[in-house]
Amino acid sequence: MKSVSRIGRKTLCTTLMMTGLAAALLGCATARSPGASDLSAEQPSGSVAERLSEIAFVGMDGQIYTVDRMGRNLAPVTVPPEDGKVRYTLPTWSPDGTRLAFISLRDTGRSGAAYGIHVAEAGSTARQLFSSQTAPPIYLYWAPRNNALSFIIGDSRRQVAFYLADLRTGDLTRLDTGRPFYWDWSFNGRSIITHTGGVGGTDPGRLSLISWNDGTRLNTDIPLATAYFQSPAFSPAGTAILTAIRGAMGGSYLTVLNLDGSIRETIAPLQGIAMFSWSPTGNSIAYIDGSPSRMFGTVGTLKVQHLKAGRRLTEAPLFRAQGTRQLTVSHTNIPVFHGEPAYPPERVSAFFWSPDGRKIVYFVPNLRRDEDGGVLMLFTIFILDTEAETIRQIGTFPPAEEFARQIVPFHDQFQRSHTIWSPDSEMIVINAIAGDGNPAIFGVSASDLSPKPRLLAHGTLPFWAPRNGSR
After folding, report:
1. 144, 155, 226, 243 — which has fewest CB within 10 A?
2. Cα–Cα dist 377/102, whole Å
3. pTM here?
4. SS3 state of residue 318
5. DSSP letter for each residue of 344-363
C-alpha cells in the first residue's frame, strides 16, 4: 500500500455521508421531516446477483457490490441507471448475512436530492423502506432478529429522528428524537438503549431504554448524569449496559448499569471522552479514554479490562499496568513509524474487536507534510491478542477519506452494526489509498507474522458479512 494520502478528495457518496452522518451526529442536521409531498428516491434497477459474496462495499461508480476474501466473485447489488444520477452508500449487512441495507441519493438538479433506504437479498429486486426529498438518512442498524431496520434521519428543528422499519409489515415507527443520537440493541431484539445530547450536542446527555413487551412499546428515561461518551452498549448477554456517568462527588466513570438503570459496578475513572465496546464474548471491555482531535475524532489511551462473572479481576500486568485493575496498551518497544515523528504511544483513534473476542485491531494516527506543504494522513494498524498478551504491527496505510472521516470518529457506534473482521477472526478489510491514488479495499491476514495486503477491489466502505449465512 502507498505510504501517504492527501486529505481532501470529495465524491458524491462522501457528500451524502458528510452531510448526514458527521453533521447530524455532531448536531448540525437541518433538514425537515419526510412528508407525503416528498419525491420518492428511485428504486435500484434490475435484480440482485443470484449469490452475494462476503464483503460488501461501494464501488467507484457509486454502486453497491460484494466480493470474496480472495478478490473474486464480484457481484453487483445495484445497477447504475441510464442517467447515472443515483448513487448508493453505507452497505449494512443483516445479522444473518443474507440481506444488505443501503442508502441512496438521486441528484434531482435544481430541486436538490431525493434520498432512500433499500434492502436487497440475492436473486431478488431491492425493496425500498423509506424515501424523502428533504430528510437524508444518516446511519443504519439492523435489529438482531433480522426482521427490522433501525435508522436515523435529519429532521426538523435541527434534530435527528430515530425510526424503526418493520420488514414484515412495511410500517415505519418514529421512536425518538435527539441531537446527537446513538444506540444499541439488546441481543434478543426486545430492547434498545439510546444516548442523546452530551458530546457534540447543545443539550445535557440523556439515557433512555426502549423496550417491547407483548407488542407494547415503553420508553423509559434513566435518571443519571452522563459523562462524555457517544454510544452506549448492551452486554452480549443483554443483562447489563455499559455507559459513562458522572459521580455524585464529581468525576466521570466508566460504569455498568443493570437494566433498571441502577449502578451494578464502576469499572474505571475517566479523564476525557470515552469510546468503548464489550468483547463479543462479554469477558472483557475495551475503551479509549481521550480527547477530541480535529482530524481523527476522539484520540487517547486504549485500555482493556478483563471481566469474569460480571466482576473485575486483578490481572497480571499487560504491557504497562496502571494499578492492578486497569491495563494500558503500550508501544514501548515497537517502531511505530520507522523513526518518523508520531503521536505518543497512547494516541489510538479507533479499535474493533474480533468476533471470537480474543483480538483487537486498532489504529494509531499520524499527520505529515508533503513536499508541497500539504497535510498527509496515515494510520498504523496493530493487532492486540488479549489472551497471548502480544501486539503485532501490521503496517502503515493512507486511509480512504470515507474511513477516516466517517468510520473512525464514530467507530464505537459502528462496532454495534458493522464489522471489518471476517467471521472466523482470521482477516480484516482495510479501506486505503492504492498506488494509483484511488480508494481501494485490501484484505489483510490477522494471523500471519508478516501479512501482505491483498487488493480485493477499488471502492470504499467495505464491511464483512457477520456470519456465513446462506447468501
Report:
1. 144
2. 28
3. 0.85
4. coil
5. -TT-B-EEEE-TTSSEEEEE
Class of domain 12-464: mainly beta
**Sign of the C-alpha dihedral computed for residues 166, 21, 160 and 116 taken in this order:** negative
Residue 337: all three cell numbers together: 513509524
Q: What nine digits make up the cell of 424?
A: 472466523
Residue by residue, what is the 3-state secondary structure of 290-305?
EEEECCCEEEEEEEEE
Q: How many CA atoms lie within 13 A of 134 on its CB side?
A: 12
| Rounded-to-integer distance, Cα 77 and Cα 74, Å | 10
For the chain, the helix, strand and coil percentages under 3-state DSSP, each to the nearest 5: 5, 45, 45
All 3 cell numbers of residue 220?
423509559
Domains of the chain by residue range:
12-464
The grid coordinates listed for 138 are: 444518516
- pLDDT tens, the chain, 471 aa long: 333 333 333 333 333 333 334 443 334 333 333 332 233 445 565 555 556 779 999 999 999 999 999 999 999 999 887 777 899 999 999 999 999 999 999 887 776 789 999 999 876 778 999 999 889 999 999 999 999 999 999 976 778 999 999 999 999 999 999 989 999 999 999 999 999 987 655 567 899 999 998 889 999 999 999 999 999 999 999 999 999 999 888 899 999 999 999 999 999 999 999 999 999 999 899 999 999 888 888 999 899 988 764 444 333 323 332 333 455 776 544 433 333 334 455 689 999 999 999 999 999 998 877 777 777 889 999 999 888 878 888 999 999 999 999 999 999 999 999 999 999 999 999 999 999 999 999 999 998 877 899 999 999 999 999 875 432
N-terminal to C-terminal alpha carbon distance within the chain: 31
**140 CA to centre of own chain:** 10
Phi, psi of 308 (to 5 degrees): -150, 125
Contact indicator for 184, 193 with CB cutoff of 8 Å = yes
Q: Among all chains, which residue has been given the C-alpha cell 436487497?
A: 120
CA distances (Å), origin 116, targets 90, 92, 136, 140, 352: 12, 14, 8, 12, 29
C-alpha cell recorded at residue 6: 492527501
Residue 420 and residue 409: Cα distance in Å, rounded? 15
Q: Which of these, 351, 445, 358, lies nearest to 394 by C-alpha position?
A: 445
